[in-house]
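Tokens for chain A. Residues wanted.
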């Protein structure tokens, strides 16, 4: 039987180990994928550190997977996929198809969502077996190292904006211009929004402009972020990518009437927002999860059309531990990607 290499963690918060596994056959409704690249996401820490229930060790993390189909399982041959097809698998790694959200077509909020690295082995490996409904087709214009991060970071920011209430020409602010936000700014500009980038420090202004932002707000100045947004007319939408509850809450008074705060940056602390801040301007706060396989495919197609790419640092699979630590330290610029072969 053939073998393949994985980077696994055997205890919560433990070191990554490079080991060989025996290659299993894909089951019914599954495909085997030869992994070419896999992004390293902060959400991988949920599983590496066992921060969510149901984690079993050893853990093979990774939910920003890009590769090629190497084998089709039973029941998948009539679904339009062929061996050799380039595909991604993201945070949406399949759904149960029988819960109420699934029956309503809202697959991304399935309570039984199958997340790679949690429900089954993820992409910190040379090979992965995934449900066929998790597959998104990669456009020819996207390299695997770009497509992988699109399956989580890309679709989360893209979908957060396109599902928002903003219309072309509206003022839209992106809080944070790191791993999520640097994509959010590019998408906001391409969607026709008057785009504001918000980050810490005057030194990030030039980078924000390189991403296409029309305005830059330095959140460390004496002018509150909300006042800066109101001086521009008030934001129809704030896409909060920064994982800071304090920073997120500071944007609320910068929303226009009936403005919308879309939260995608995960933070454990509660938001310091009063009901009056929402009531007086009829404002909305909405959490936004990732996106389905079709959403990922839409994200990649839009990115290919508009020349949008994640900024990545690619390293070999056997450096998974170093890449993961660099991501946790916030030192990546801006998505670490593991490559194989």
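Reply:
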């Amino acid at each position: 039987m053939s073998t393949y290499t994985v980077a696994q963690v055997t205890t919560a918060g433990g070191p990554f180990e490079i080991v060989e596994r025996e290659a299993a056959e894909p089951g019914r409704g599954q495909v085997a994928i030869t992994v070419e690249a896999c992004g390293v996401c902060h959400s991988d820490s949920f599983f590496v550190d066992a921060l969510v229930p149901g984690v079993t060790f050893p853990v093979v993390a990774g939910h920003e997977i890009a590769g090629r189909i190497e084998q089709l399982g039973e029941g998948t041959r009539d679904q339009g996929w062929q061996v050799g097809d380039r595909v991604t698998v993201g945070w949406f790694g399949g759904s149960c198809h029988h819960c109420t959200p699934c029956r309503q077509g809202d697959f991304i909020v399935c309570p039984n969502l199958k997340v790679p690295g949690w429900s089954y082995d993820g992409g910190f490996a040379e090979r992965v077996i995934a449900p066929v409904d998790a597959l998104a087709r990669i456009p020819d214009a996207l390299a695997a190292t770009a497509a992988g991060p699109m399956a989580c970071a890309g679709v989360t920011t893209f979908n957060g904006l396109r599902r928002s209430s903003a219309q072309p020409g509206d003022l839209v602010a992106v809080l944070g211009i790191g791993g999520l936000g640097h994509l959010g700014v590019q998408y906001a500009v391409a969607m026709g929004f008057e785009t504001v980038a918000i980050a810490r420090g005057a030194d990030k202004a030039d980078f924000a402009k390189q991403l296409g932002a029309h305005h830059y707000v330095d959140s460390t100045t004496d002018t509150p972020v909300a006042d800066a947004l109101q001086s521009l007319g008030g934001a129809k939408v704030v896409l909060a990518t920064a994982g800071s509850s304090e920073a997120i809450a500071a944007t609320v008074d910068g929303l226009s009437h009936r403005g919308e705060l879309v939260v995608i940056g995960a933070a454990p602390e509660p938001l310091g927002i009063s009901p009056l801040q929402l009531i007086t301007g009829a404002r909305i706060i909405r959490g936004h999860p990732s996106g389905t396989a079709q959403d990922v495919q839409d994200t990649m197609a839009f990115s290919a059309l508009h020349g949008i790419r994640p900024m990545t640092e690619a390293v070999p699979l056997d450096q998974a531990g170093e890449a993961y630590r660099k991501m946790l330290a916030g030192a990546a610029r801006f998505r670490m990607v593991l490559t194989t072969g």
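DSSP finds ten helices and 15 strands in the chain. The mean pLDDT is 97.
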